[in-house]
Amino acid sequence: MLHVQDLIQDILNNQIPEERQKLLSPLTEYIIESQRTEGQTQLNFICTHNSRRSQFSQVWAHIAAEHFQVNIACHSGGVEITACNERTVESLKRLGLIVQVSGTDNPKYEIIFKENTPPILCYSKLYNDPNSPSANFATIMTCAHADENCPVIPGATTRIPIRYEDPKKFDDTNLEEIMYDERSMQIASEMFYVIQQVKSLL
Fold first, then answer.
1. No. of H helices and E strands in the chain?
2. Is 66 part of any domain?
3. How far apart are CA 142 and CA 27, in angstroms?
């Protein structure tokens, strides 16, 4: 049974600090502008390995867009191919999502968040993966390393830094699950905040 719909109200009730609201405003503005001019928006969330923060961002932005019925295609990528970290996947499961996996070295995960709705496909890939947009999209840099070391994303209309602390530092500690869930919920809350703002202004 899916429980993520029960979680959405908690996400919406989370308060976003003023400094983060300011950081998120360029993304809100970009989505509004692209919705008004194109009727759709393409987002590509980038971090170095495409294994944690960018995957969380893709998943929660997709769920928020579906919840508010805003036409947004959400992608993620990195500057290296590794794998969507299993701790990321386990956190999504703990928060109520159903995950189906195929493959071993760089598994593909189908994230099911709502009945009778296509799943979200997550796997580690480069920012210019053939399945990612090649033009008319916003790049959202979710980690400092990728933001500083990948200065140009070909085809991007705009580049928006929205950095998150890496939960990796807590791997294999007694805080691991807490910190992964905390980061996931932070990203979920901010993506829902942005897209709720968009919906109210369109």
1. 6, 7
2. yes
3. 12
